[in-house]
Amino acid sequence: MADVMSMEDIHATAARLNVDLSSLDLGSIRLPPAEDFGIASDDEDLKEEESLEFEEGFGNIIVVDNLPVVPKEKFEKLEGVVRKIYSQIGVIKEDGLWMPVDPETHKTLGYCFIEYNTPQEAELAKEKTNGYKLDRSHIFAVNMFDDIEKFMKVPEEWAPPETKPYTPGENLQKWLTDEKARDQFVIRAGSDTEVLWNDARQSKPELVYKKAYWTESFVQWSPLGTYLATIHRQGAAIWGGATTFNRLMRCAHPQRVVINIFDVRTGKVMRDFKGSADEFATGGTGGVSGVSWPVFRWGGGKDDKYFARIGKNVISVYETETFTLIDKKSIKVENVVDFSWSPTDPILALFVPELGGGNQPARVSLVQIPSKEELRQKNLFSVSDCKMYWQSNGDYLAVKVDRYTKTKKSTYTGFELFRIKERDIPIEVLELENKNDKIIAFAWEPKGHRFAVIHGDNPRPDVSFYSMRSGTNIGRVSKLTTLKGKQANALYWSPAGRFIILAGLKGFNGQLEFYNVDELETMAQAEHFMATDVEWDPTGRYVVTAVTSVHEMENGFNVWSFNGKLLYRIPRDHFFQFLWRPRPPSFLSPEKEEEIAKNLKKYSKKYEAEDQDVSLLLSEQDREKRRMLKEEWDRWVSEWKRLHEEEKLERQKLRDGEASDDEEEYEAKEVEIEELLDVSEEVISFD
């Protein structure tokens, strides 16, 4: 809107400029219509930008109301209390806390302004402290500074809100209703990212969505497969949809060392953690081992009620209702170096190494959350290293312990096996027949009681299978079998258990053995040359082996059946990533799943018929393809016969009138021809 001057201002300006207003006929002046007098301003865009900056530029300021009204002598104390409360949530700018004072009474007015470094900190402060009870008489009312203008525009009279018709949102799980019961996967190759169906029946993938430069780093499915996250310099983007992939949320992330925890549905920062790289290093400050990702580990079962991080002599456990420390303090554990969550229960496993040159033994402890009660502890002596492996149902915990020999010149390995769900959590010790065998790989059977170990020092190590049950004695570990001399250095169980792939990656050039642990027999042996990755699909029906861009050649992936049959190959240059889309847990009860397994033949008839139809269709397609190739060949032969006939007279002329094209009617004769190639003269002296 144009600026308006009062007549008093006009007279003052005229006097300053020595202008006699009485000599001017203002009524004769005719100005162009419109507020800008028909002259477009060059700075309109600037004004708009300034307006936008005004609306969005104060997003890092909050207004805290219902503070105590105190006199001048208590001002500093109140300011200190407020600063202490709000500096715990984020960094308050220098001179960023302003508490207005009544100029007449010199008392505070009962509110203050707090300016944070970022809008995210301000939003979090509002969310965490609105309704905060300072005392009985003072309960904070916290608002964003930007909201004040909105409140000022609230009409005096109430009007009922406009009722809008309900429009249901997209079904983000629609992909689970695929009639062919197919699974999806995402790949990154070159600049392209693609989501595809695994159509094993057609022996090829089917494209769902493709986008160039979709991510600047990598992509990641959410644990239940609902969302796909792409990573960018500005932060992360969340994608999903019923039939395609739409951007559902942006999660902005500043260019500095900070960890933000977002609510995926709203995009709100629920909690952020600031600090240097050293502060996020494993074991706290110092950063000897560097920053280990993930810094925070989620736990507490399927609801992910807790998350935790390791610090110097502490484990900090937070709960997800308020995103604050449990009991407002960390768990103190002197010299703790590692921890892991049970996959199904709020139980932490902690490892503390030896101290004092072996005078204080190493130990593994199980701690219940949120009570912080120690459920079980095991002291370990002469320990050089320790690794913990949870079984997927949280029934068992295997602790691989490398111990020094008496001479301290070498080490040997054993396992401490915790039976978590049994009374008093009994522990069993397992040692290999050859204590000196190096442990190359260890893996639990998902949802099962068996585990596999690759062990040995020679180029062809052994693979042993064990069960946590022993015949009628379910509380005793037993060995099932040992496979001698295998070209394997990695273990990949099917997510449904029973089947396992013994993989020889890297130095073994992609050797694969598909093994049935129920029958203790090899189903197939194969090779994917230079394979770097093995990924089972969520159902355990199919498995992918891939060669990523760590190798310059042979990039791409192969899709196999669970029993080792190669279904199709997809070559891709500059192949970076392959990820199956996870499936959420089944809604079926264990009893229903067991009933389906018992009556599988009855349920499978429908799918066998569909498979037969697809097989017949593929056979028909193959026949059609062969018929078209034969027709193309016949057309090619006919064309060459026609050209041959058209050139018959030309060939006859070249044969001096001989009409026949049959080579057998001609007699071959050998003719000797003498040809003078060169003549030279040379004078020979007879002296």
Automatic annotation (TrEMBL):
Residues 60-147 form the RRM domain. Its main location: cytoplasm. SMART domains: RRM. InterPro entries: EIF3B (IPR011400), eIF3B_RRM (IPR034363), Nucleotide-bd_a/b_plait_sf (IPR012677), RBD_domain_sf (IPR035979), RRM_dom (IPR000504), TIF_beta_prop-like (IPR013979), WD40/YVTN_repeat-like_dom_sf (IPR015943). One of its GO terms (biological process) is formation of cytoplasmic translation initiation complex. Pfam families: eIF2A, RRM_1. Keywords: Cytoplasm, Initiation factor, Protein biosynthesis, RNA-binding. GO terms for cellular component: eukaryotic 43S preinitiation complex; eukaryotic 48S preinitiation complex; eukaryotic translation initiation factor 3 complex. It comes from the Eukaryota. GO terms for molecular function: RNA binding; translation initiation factor activity; translation initiation factor binding. It is found in: Cytoplasm. HAMAP family: eIF3b. Belongs to the eIF-3 subunit B family. Component of the eukaryotic translation initiation factor 3 (eIF-3) complex. RNA-binding component of the eukaryotic translation initiation factor 3 (eIF-3) complex, which is involved in protein synthesis of a specialized repertoire of mRNAs and, together with other initiation factors, stimulates binding of mRNA and methionyl-tRNAi to the 40S ribosome. The eIF-3 complex specifically targets and initiates translation of a subset of mRNAs involved in cell proliferation. Component of the eukaryotic translation initiation factor 3 (eIF-3) complex, which is involved in protein synthesis and, together with other initiation factors, stimulates binding of mRNA and methionyl-tRNAi to the 40S ribosome. This is Eukaryotic translation initiation factor 3 subunit B. It comes from Sesamum latifolium.
